[in-house]
TrEMBL record:
It comes from Roseibium aestuarii. Residues 211-279 form the GHMP kinase C-terminal domain. HAMAP family: IspE. Keywords: ATP-binding, Isoprene biosynthesis, Kinase, Nucleotide-binding, Transferase. This is 4-diphosphocytidyl-2-C-methyl-D-erythritol kinase. The lineage of its organism: Bacteria, Pseudomonadati, Pseudomonadota, Alphaproteobacteria, Hyphomicrobiales.
Amino acid sequence: MTACFAPAKVNLALHITGQRADGYHLLDSLVVFPRIGDTLIASAAPAGAAPSLTLTGRFAAELGETAAQDNLVLRALGAACAAAGRPEPSLALTLDKQLPVASGIGGGSSDAAAALKVALDDLELAPEALQSLALSLGADVPACLEGVLTGRPLRMSGIGETLTPLSPLPDLGMVLVNPGKPVSTPAIFRSLSRRDNPPLPDLPDRFETLETLIDWLKGTRNDMQAAAETLCPEITSVLQALSEAPSTRLARMSGSGATCFALTAPGDEEQLAQDLRAAHPDWWVAAGPLL
Ligand code: C5P
């Protein structure tokens, strides 16, 4: 049996810098991976059995309703085997779904990346083949594959295919909050008022302190946040609750929402999460350091 952690993908900054002729958006993003995520467990099944997927965990039912047979995990496994010219392995997969579905933190993409990692334990695929396979499964899957394999922060550009690994960030605490409303990524992209924003400001070789990271982040944005707040006003309530907390150093939305994050000094995140759970029992609240 092997277990693979599929971390949330959090966009600390997300600038939308253009749009390709095929409609996909060009972006420039600082992406990090907290110790908050799903887990994919693979066990051997009887020889000849087709791969199977069982869902467990807090968001299993939601995922079952939206993805049914077409789950990205089985598609990723099938695509990896096809690319390597090998039959699909007899694996019983269990996905412990702890991340909310359609929530801007790449849960489905990270699950697919974990399936690629499980497949890779048995297959040989060149790094370029692996990256193009990941991109064919979704624009966020290449970044999430790096998250699964290394957990390191990344600068992500293009539509998600250009990845630059960054030095580890200073120690910090992260709290993720989702108000329980799924958000459609294509709908947010469609309703953007501008698609020609400037790229991220220059990144230093390394952020020496949390203060320098926060100062740099204050010169950046999530260009999808305003459109997402219009379509999902609960995001505004989440951002207000996070911003008002004394331990919050920065609060912002991730991806196309509705999940928002707060950054805190290391060790402050658990208390902030407890306070938010007490005040808003309907919200999903998770806390942890970065990987
Ligand atoms: O690649 P993925 O299937 O995750 O993308 C879902 C949808 O989000 C796309 O069909 C597209 O409408 C939109 N999208 C985009 N630009 C990106 C990523 C996604 O317009 N860079």
